[in-house]
Every structure is written in C-alpha cells, then in structure tokens.
Specification:
The protein has 14 helices and 20 strands. By secondary structure, the chain is an alpha/beta fold. Helix 8 (282-297) packs across helix 13 (473-486), helix 9 (342-353) runs parallel beside helix 12 (433-442) and helix 11 crosses helix 13. Bound molecules: ligand BES, manganese (II) ion and zinc ion. Ligand BES is lined by residues 262, 280, 337, 339-342, 366-370, 372, 427, 433, 456.
Length: 519
C-alpha cells in the first residue's frame, strides 16, 4: 500500500483526483468547506439518508460537482484517534470490495495529527487483510493500493510522520496476525525458528539465534522440556536481538509464549473449539511482530526477544500430572495439571533473561482462560508489582489503541501454589486463575523489573470473524518507542534487584524422557 499526503482545503477538496473520496465528519464539525461537498452532505441529512453520527456511512456514486467518481461520508463521534480510526474503518468497508477503487483519498473535518495518521494506516491494514496462506481460493485482496490523506499544508509534516510510523507498526501487526492464523501443522516450533532467522536475514538490525533440544538441555531448562515430552515436533528456543542503542545501554527483554498447539497434554482439553489453541503462540508472534516493527522504525534502544516454543501433546512419553520437574532456576515444580504449560515454558525463559541484566522484562502469553473470564476480549491483562513499568505499558496501550488493564499481584494469591512435593505446584485453584498464573511467573523474576501481559482474550477473535488480531504488537511497539524517546526518564535496571538473582544453586540436569517407544 502506497501512503501519501496531499495539501488541499476548502473548494479544492471537490477537485481531488482519486477513485473514491472518503470524507470523515465529526459531530461538532459536520462540514468540509467545499461548497459541492457541503451541499451533498446537507442533502443527505435533509433526505434522512445519512446523519453525522459514529457508525453512519453513506456511499454516493458519481456525486454532483465532485471530481472523484465515488464519495463516502462517514460519521465520527469526535476528533479522538479512536473515533477517527473507527470512522475510517467504516468508510473503507464501503469501498474495499469495489474493484474499480485503487486510489482512495481521505479527508477529515477535524484536524489530523501524527497519531491520527498512524491509526488510520492500522485501519486500512485491518480492512484490507485477507488470509490466503492455506486458502488460495480466498477472495483476492482488495484492489486498493494507494491512499492519500488530504489536509491543510500545515499538517503535512505530522501526517507524513504518522503515516510512516503507522506502516512500521502495521508490518509488525501483520506478521503477528499471519503467524497466529497459520495452522499448527504449518506453524511448528521449527517454523517459528525459521521465521526468526528470516527476519535476521532480511533486516540488518536484527540478529537471531535458534537453540535446538540439545542446547536447551544444556541450559538445564527442565521445566520447558517437560512440556515438549509428548510431542513429535522438536522444541526451539529463539533469541532475537535488536541493537539500536549504545552497547552499554541495558536492554528491554520481551518473552513470548510459543505453544504452537495446546491440546492440554495428559490433562486433555475438551474437544469443542480446541482448534483455537493454534493461537497459543500469540505471545511468540507478538515478539516476532514487534521485532519486525523495530526493523522499520529503528528506535535508539536495545531489545532482546526470547521465545520458548514447543507443542503440548498427550502421548506415552508425555509429562503426567504429579510429575516433578526442575526448572533452570533450580526451583522444582509439581506439574499438577499439564494444561498449565505456558508458565512451565516461560519460567525457564525468564531465568535465561537474567543474563542480559535487563532494564525490564515483559512476558506476553495466551496464558489463562481465567483472564478471558475477567476481562473479555477488550483489554489484555497486565500484571506487575512495578508501578513505573506498569504505568508506561498502560499509557502505551492507550496511545496505540491496544489497551491493557492492570490486575492485582498481591502475595496472598500465591498461597494456592503450595506443594507437598516440590517448591511449588503449577496451578492454584480455579479462583483468580489469571493471578495465580502471574504469581507463579513472578517466582522466576526476582532479578529485574518485570511485567506480564496475559493476551488470552485479545490475541485472536472467535466466531465468524475468527482470526488473529496481531495484538499486542501495537502496545509493545509504542512502549519501546516511548522508552527510546524518554532519554533520562527511560526505565532503568533496578540497582537493588541486581543484588539478588533467582536461586540457581540446585541446578540439576533435567530428567530426559525417551521419546522413542521401547521395542
Ligand atoms: N493456552 C491456555 C489458555 C487459554 C485458554 C487461552 C482458553 C485462551 C483461551 C493455557 O495453556 C491453559 O490451558 N490454561 C489453563 C490453566 C489451568 C489448567 C490452570 C486454563 O486457563 O484453563
Ligand atoms: Mn494449556
Ligand atoms: Zn496454553
């Protein structure tokens, strides 16, 4: 998609050459300053064919006095980024299926700034996406190939900056969404490793390292490996690096859950809707997607991406309820429920993160059904004891229209994880399940500032519109950009936290379970 800016106002709006002209009007500014357009708007309102309200659109073919052969009016509740983005999405829906529309011009009665421009790129991307990888018969993507934002010349610089930032984020969102949509037999741990390598080949600021089972065993990641025991697919541990800052600058580490399919293991999930567990690598996809965005946007900071990835399958070699495994941190875990596997792969990645002496670590995971019960599909769940980090993430989410809601992490919730046979169990009860999952992870994050995003409700949509959302690439990218811009105010490693790394004394090699059946 080709994004442009063109300076025009007032009467000139009716003379714009494009296949379609989209006019977004806010309730308190329902006119354009073009006589021809304002007459059409007035007519539409008086004939009750349209009203200037959020969600209301009108398509007009061969509008009188307008050069563009197609005109769409779209109402916005107000001039907020959210409202304008929604109105643009509605307007695009009117033209995207019309084969003759290749070039769209868009103008708005409210003053557009960089944030509006960034969000509208997102809206265009969302409106024109078609999944085709394993469905080549899907309708061809829209003919739409060029979008020109038309506004006063003074807005030009801001709009151009927003359009280019928006394209970087959109490329990241698109990668995350596509990886999520890929079926589990295509998107395997090996495939995710190849995708990481592909990013590093394509973009010179990205480096990738992909560890195989032998290397993972050597690290002592006994908890991670216990999840892969039942699967024929080999696990991978992906390490991505984006080096945009000074060597001395502490990196931000992103850790993404990469379960390429979650059957539940021996604690097998019910059959209905189980296909959606192909999205259980949404955290991993958001890390890869965020790196894709970083490659475009090139902020001045250092970022590490860690992705533990495997399948969770039942078999004769699978981990059983009651098995005790030893994590890389040395802490032992009683696997009471093999379906609580996300935390088992994340905890070892969180221990691995210590070696980077990070400014902060953020893990992203489709971790619990309980988080969906709590927050539905609007906000991602944010868990952190660190107010500064939590506030920065919440603000980034609001800015990117990819919001999170903060949840509690009081120690009392951790009582549910007590075990008679290991340092901890991997599940508490049903109650507060998203919180006990976060508390479990916190036991591996004592060496640094840490936040956890539970994206179980936000990473994909169910039902007729089933599909990946690419969330929370928008939030994460915005957070990283803000950190790069913050200079001295950026989040720094906590001095007092460096002093006490997680216990590593009892590091014992993971029990390796033979994956071949005995003769
Ligand atoms: N991947 C699931 C979480 C999930 C479930 C995400 C449904 C989105 C929709 C995770 O591995 C899981 O199975 N969690 C269990 C934890 C339980 C056993 C404590 C859950 O939420 O049921
Ligand atoms: Mn599970
Ligand atoms: Zn899972």
């Amino acid at each position: 998609m080709d994004y442009r800016f063109s300076a025009a106002q007032g009467a000139a709006l009716s003379q714009i050459a494009a296949d379609a002209l989209l006019v977004v009007l806010t309730a308190d500014q329902p006119t354009t300053g073009s006589e021809a357009l304002d007459k059409l708007i007035k007519d539409a309102v008086s004939s009750k064919d349209w009203e200037c309200k959020a969600g209301k659109t009108l398509y007009i073919h061969r509008p009188a006095g307008v050069k563009a052969p197609r005109l769409v009016l779209s109402g916005a509740a107000d001039a907020s980024v959210k409202a304008i983005r929604a109105a643009v999405g509605k307007a695009l829906a009117e033209v995207k299926s019309r084969g003759g529309v290749q070039h769209v011009a868009l103008t708005c009665s409210a003053v557009l700034d960089a944030a509006h421009a960034q969000a509208l790129v997102q809206a265009v991307d969302e409106a024109t996406y078609v999944y085709r990888q394993t469905k080549p018969s899907a309708p061809k993507p829209a003919a739409l190939s060029k979008l020109t934002v038309v506004a006063a010349a003074e807005q030009g610089a801001a709009i151009k900056a927003g359009l280019s930032a928006g394209q970087g984020v959109a490329a990241g969102v698109a990668l995350a969404r596509e990886l999520g949509n890929l079926p589990g037999n295509h998107c395997t741990p090996t495939f995710l490793g190849q995708e990481a390598r592909r990013l590093s080949r394509e973009f010179k600021h990205i480096k990738a390292e992909v560890l195989d089972r032998a290397a993972i065993e050597k690290l002592g990641m006994g908890s991670f490996l216990s999840v892969t025991n039942g699967s024929a697919q080999p696990p991978r541990f992906i390490v991505l690096r984006y080096e945009g800052g000074a060597k001395s600058q502490a990196p931000i580490v992103l850790v993404g859950k990469g379960i390429t399919f979650d059957t539940g293991g021996i604690s097998l999930k019910p059959g209905a809707g189980m296909d959606e567990m192909k999205y259980d690598m949404g955290g991993a996809a958001s890390v890869l997607g965020t790196f894709r965005a970083l490659a475009d946007l090139k902020p001045k900071l250092n970022v590490i991406g860690l992705v533990p990835t495997c399948e969770n399958m039942p078999s004769g070699t699978a981990t059983k309820p009651g098995d005790v495994v030893t994590s890389m941190s040395g802490q032992t875990i009683e696997v009471l429920n093999t379906d609580a596997e996300g935390r088992l792969i994340l905890c070892d990645a969180l221990t691995y993160a210590e070696r980077f002496k990070p400014a902060a670590v953020i893990d992203i995971a489709t971790l619990t059904g309980a988080c969906v019960v709590a927050l539905g599909h609007v906000h991602s769940g944010l868990f952190s004891a660190d107010d500064e980090l939590a506030d920065a993430l919440l603000a980034a989410g609001r800015q990117a229209l990819d919001t999170a809601w903060r949840m509690p992490v009081d120690e009392e919730y951790g009582d549910a994880l007590k075990s008679n046979f290991a340092d901890m169990g991997n599940v508490g009860g049903r109650d507060g399940g998203a919180i006990t999952a976060a508390i479990f992870l916190s036991k591996f994050t004592k060496a640094y500032r840490w936040a956890h995003l539970d994206i179980a409700g936000s990473a994909w949509k169910s039902g007729a519109a089933k599909g990946g959302t690419g969330r929370p690439v928008g939030l994460l990218t915005q957070f990283l950009l803000s950190q790069a811009d913050a200079g001295a105010a950026a989040i720094k490693p906590m001095a007092d936290k460096k002093a006490k790394p997680a216990p590593a004394a009892r590091r014992v090699p993971a029990k390796r379970v033979a994956t071949k059946r005995p003769a």
